[in-house]
Amino acid sequence: MMTPWRYVFLVLGIVISLHSLLSFTHEGYGQATSLTNLKGHIYGETFEPPYKAGVPDEYYVPEEHASPVGRKANAAIVMLARNSDLNGIITSMKQMEDRFNKKFNYPYVFLNEAEFSDEFKKRVSDLTDAEVKFGLIPREHWFQPEWIDEDKAKASRDDMVRNQVIYGGSVPYRNMCRFNSGFFYRHELLKDYKYYWRYVPDVKFFCDLDYDPFLIMQDQQKVYGFTVSLYEYEATIPTLWNAVREFIEENPGLVAPDNAMAFLSDDGGKTYNRCHFWSNFEIGDLDLWRSEAYMKFFDFLDSKGGFYYERWGDAPVHSIGAALFAKKEQIHFFNDIGYRHEPFQHCPQGDAHKKGKCWCDESQNFDYEWYSCLNRYDKMFQ
């Protein structure tokens, strides 16, 4: 009998097949290279992925303490939300509090393209003792730019609707992807923070998190953290990699040595294998996105119009940016954070499962299923 997970993967496989038919300063993220010699920078010293060594015991703290010797990072928990998302936000935030933040008390930042309602503010604020901030997204950071050819964009949307591309007909979804790719880190409420944890409505956190992941990022000099990685829908990004290659050729000095290109490409950068980190969960260093390299990269991509003429997502854009402008060891898999966003989940295995008192079924784990890219992440360190 086919298990529910196997059924999900079978259906997804059919869908994807159909779609396929149709030093940390801003300057410190990049050093000289080019597309033609990039392959030489991909493979560095061979060692196991850092997450397999586990989090050092000294980071785990007793119930009555917030962090080792009272330390905290300069960080915030960030959510892009609308008033209509309130019930899903309550579900996610309650789990975030119970599993992690009631102990560590990091502030929340909520961003919206419209004003938050008083009901939204009250119900969200009632869930936590931490500071909660509510921000309005500037109009120029959210809506489709005037320079976009709307006739061309609409023709593309209509074509995607005919071909049943997910969110293919949605302008608001494209606005969101563009905002998350190039503007969220510029918001006034985030300007004084260095690290962020992004999460979204209607997700599950399966495990107690008895250490501070922001301190792991800070102390181990990580810049990007993820829990799920997978392949992007090919129909949404037909020309994205052409633009990436063009940017690399024009800006060879911005690409980091010992980068994570091997996660993105199986031939040294000639083609894109569509692997990306699922950005509905990410813990990151805001200075990565504020860096000269990434800011130029986003502006270049934005000028191509692919967020509207196609349906470029923030997940592949962030993933490509992190892989190109950071070293591979600066990208971290949070193996012990149990997480689900439909239809995929990461469920910690073995000792990590027991240590976190996780309530997910260990057999229901996406890590090494056929549509996961975690094996490609692991291979970078072998």
UniProtKB/TrEMBL annotation:
Residues 1-23 form the signal peptide. The active site is at 282 (nucleophile). GO terms for biological process: cell wall mannoprotein biosynthetic process; protein N-linked glycosylation. The keyword Signal applies. It holds the Pfam family Glyco_transf_15. One of its GO terms (molecular function) is alpha-1,2-mannosyltransferase activity. The keyword Transmembrane does not apply. It comes from the Eukaryota. Keywords: Signal, Transferase. Transmembrane segments: none annotated. Belongs to the glycosyltransferase 15 family. This is Glycosyltransferase family 15 protein. The lineage of its organism: Eukaryota, Fungi, Dikarya, Basidiomycota, Agaricomycotina.
